[in-house]
Design goal:
Layout: H1 4-33, H2 38-72, H3 75-79, H4 82-111, H5 130-139
Helix pairs in contact: 1-2, 1-4
Length: about 140
């Protein structure tokens, strides 16, 4: 059996990481739209994103373990812990906001010529409702 307090604690920790990603994306967006030296800030933001990646992977691993145990619980038991559902929604919202902002940043880097041709997004990714489709696919 899974401990709802442990699930909530790990969800809060993951939310903090997601908010850190969102804050980083917002700072990068401001730098890309501002008059700062873009090439030096691009390298700085790349380093910061790469530093976040192992922490996100570790957090995601813990959440995957909780998810399997959480889904085995009876619906009535899960409903007794509404904070978990609220934290799941908050995490989902933060992730979607970060994805949207990262897409904007990617477009800004492309416009400014800050991405080498090998890193250009595939033409199939240029769908206008990509994030909405992701949200619909994983929210159910």
């Amino acid at each position: 059996m899974t401990d709802p307090a442990a699930v909530a604690s790990d969800l809060r920790a993951h939310l903090a990481l997601c908010q850190e990603c969102l804050h980083l994306a917002a700072r990068e967006n401001q730098a890309l739209l501002g008059a700062t030296e873009a090439s030096s800030t691009a390298a700085e933001f790349l380093e910061l994103r790469q530093a976040l990646l192992p922490r996100l992977d570790q957090s995601l691993g813990r959440l995957k373990q909780h998810r399997a145990a959480w889904q085995r619980l009876a619906p009535a038991e899960r409903q007794r812990h509404p904070e978990v559902a609220a934290l799941l929604r908050a995490n989902q919202d933060a992730i979607m906001k970060a994805l949207l902002l990262e897409r904007e940043n990617e477009q800004a880097r492309l416009r400014r010529g800050l991405m080498p041709p090998g890193q250009w997004p595939a033409a199939a990714r240029q769908r206008p409702h990509f994030v909405a489709e992701l949200y619909r696919r994983y929210s159910g």
